[in-house]
Fold each of these.
Amino acid sequence: MVMEMLVGKLHKNLKSTLFNCIGGVCLKKINQGQNVIIEENVTFGNNVTLGHNVIIYADTVIGDNVIIQDNAVIGKQPTRAKASILPEVNKLPPAKIGSEVTIGTSSIVYADCTIGNNVFVADLSTLRERVTIGEYTIVGRGVAVENDCTIGKRCKLETNCYVTAYSELGDYVFMAPYAVTTNDNYMGRSKERLDKFKGVTIETGGRVGANATILPGKIIKSDGTVAAASTVTKDVEKEILVVGTPAKEHSKVEDKQLLRNQEK
């Protein structure tokens, strides 16, 4: 066993202490709650805190000063539905979590997900396989990022927004609550769709308002902005605000709203 529990009573705060041990030599202390499951060959940085009922699967890599809250699951291998169009994979590489990261209560981070430094993942979020999250990004409560997505640095994905599979978000992207992206123009019907899945691209500084819907394959160019409750059926040009269903050009984005004019 790579991990070894210290013998003794729990602290008054109901947390015990776990040491990362190799060949009997204890290297790093980890604060953990009750009923924590850690599989073999997990690598921990310094000062890691695990809440109650956390599960960490084999070979996961966790950086320094990471907080993983109650009931979170890290490094889960995906389970493929019999009718799934995704390729069958025997075993994916482990999850990797950078330093200064917080993973909220009941969140799930799949295998082959890479989370950069200083990322905050709120409660009940799901980050699927082959996903990369850039540093300082905030993933809000209940957000789902599906498989094969890239999220840039310093993005804000707010409560319950949805990033569909095969999407790419640049840096400083903002998605408001309940914003939705899609990738299937055939809505699950016909074999013709199988080689035509295409996610959404939101370039650096792009913004999407609450309850907006972005149709498959559409591109929101740099600093392009989608108003709340709009439906995007064609690409949004650079520094343009679109409004309505279907979304149409309304105006240029105000200079004071452009990313280049923000304090960083």
Note: The chain has no helices and 33 strands.
Amino acid sequence: MVRHALGQALTVENYRVFHARNHQEALNEFQRQPADQPIDIVLLDLNPPNENAWQTVERLNSLQPNLPVIAMTARVEEHDFTSSAHFVDALMEKPLDLPLLMDTLNHLTSQAPILRRHHKTNSDSLIH
């Protein structure tokens, strides 16, 4: 329900949205996209049951190294970001602040890939 409401809000803001119920669906959807219509940004929940979100982030990054990733979690304190922070551009705590999410999405999708790569190495600015 939250996933669909968020998708509707993003669609209103002219984002093309693909829903995935789990990380395997996300990877499958990502790989199905035509080369001339790549996915521009990924919003990924770090807390789905029985899944390792960091493996999904690493896999997406291997498929498209400059892909911006926003990770979402309700339990920031449960995650060790020291080894995986370089794979995400932003971490947002739930419940999501929609205006902040939109600002972050707009900022990341407008940045050149080289700037995002630098941002991924700066974990001080990771948590929003």
Note: Residues 98-110 form the longest helix (13 residues).
Amino acid sequence: MGGDGHGIGPARTWGDRHPLGPTPELNVPPAPPLRMRTLGPAVAVALVGGDSGWHGEVAHPAPFHMLQSYLSGTVEVTVSDGESRRFGPGSLLLLEDTHGKGHSTRILDEDVVLLLTQLAGAGTGSGAGRISTG
């Protein structure tokens, strides 16, 4: 998974917003530069867990911009245009569908643990949700 051709970056959902811009480099002397994608300031960070079989079948917009970093388990996310994708350990999902019909989520196999980072800023998109890799 990755969205910038370099293997880093989250898959993301959004309303009618333009994807993130180019990936700058991060210099960490004395090591060679690393690629970095700035997502904005974090408001809060939480560990979230859900039991296998849990589902949020009714589509809903994300309550705020968030980055979900999956640590265990697998979920399936379906956006309003009908596209579904599965996310498991090591997957990143940037949710920006704060307007419109939103998405639904269900836990597929085992209990899920994810690191949720609430990002600053209100949603400005509208219309059908989409899942993108960059």
Note: The radius of gyration is 15 Å.
